Amino acid sequence: MNVQNHTLTQSSETLVARSGAYAMLSALFSPPYTETFRLLLNEQDSQSLPSSCELLDPGLGVMAREVFEAIHRSDIEEEYVKVFGHTVSRDVSPYELEFQKNKEVFSMTQALADINGFYQAFGLQLDVHERADHISVEAEFISYLLWKQALAVENEQPENADICAGAYQAFQRDHFQSWAQDFARKLNNSSDSQFYRLASGFLLHLLELNTPRREEPGVLSQ
């Protein structure tokens, strides 16, 4: 792969927009009482995030606006409990490991260690109240990677841009892409919640946009 041809020809504006879409995705599946979810209640973000999505794809922009409209028509806290409950053992789990075929303790421990290894490689620390394989946390990490890549492109730093692009590709391939699709389809088919059906549709569409060519940045606390 030619680093300069591959990473620096990508628009930093597009990378920032993709980062915003994943930040929105992270907020959508965060518990409604968290600061991350409150991003969706901010008037400025309710305008800027759909605009970012529209830059990537008009259809994604429409879906983003529908999600924001649904927030004000729904009791999200009640719907969150109905859909996800207070435990991991729900019909639709927001955790990657619950979708892993090999349920042996060693395999699941290794998978969780690998996810944490990605975060640690970028100096990120996880909130002690959430598991590393929660869909909101993984989406936030992807958003961070895209944001970092955008900065590297903007500052003409091909090596840094390539590191972020490679991490994004590996994380999507080894963790996020396949299980997030299964999660979204299962949620869309089983949930009575309008808000979470819209959120699952948004997730599926975003993943479809990523399928032909893979790369992105995200957000966690440093």
What can you tell me about this protein's structure?
- The structure is a single chain.
- The chain is mainly α.
- It has one domain: TorD-like (Orthogonal Bundle).
- It is built from 10 helices and no strands.
- The protein has helices at residues 3-7, 12-28, 35-38, 43-56, 58-71, 76-84, 105-121, 135-154, 158-190, 194-210.
- The radius of gyration is 17 Å and the shape is globular.
- It starts with a helix and ends in a 12-residue tail after the last helix.
- Mean pLDDT is 86; it is low at 1-6 and 212-219.
List the helices and strands and how they pair.
Elements: H1 3-7, H2 12-28, H3 35-38, H4 43-56, H5 58-71, H6 76-84, H7 105-121, H8 135-154, H9 158-190, H10 194-210
Helix pairs in contact: 2-4, 2-8, 4-5, 5-10, 8-9, 9-10
CATH superfamily: TorD-like
* Shape-level CATH architecture: Orthogonal Bundle
Radius of gyration over C-alpha positions, nearest whole angstrom: 17 Å
Please report the total strand number as a whole number. 0
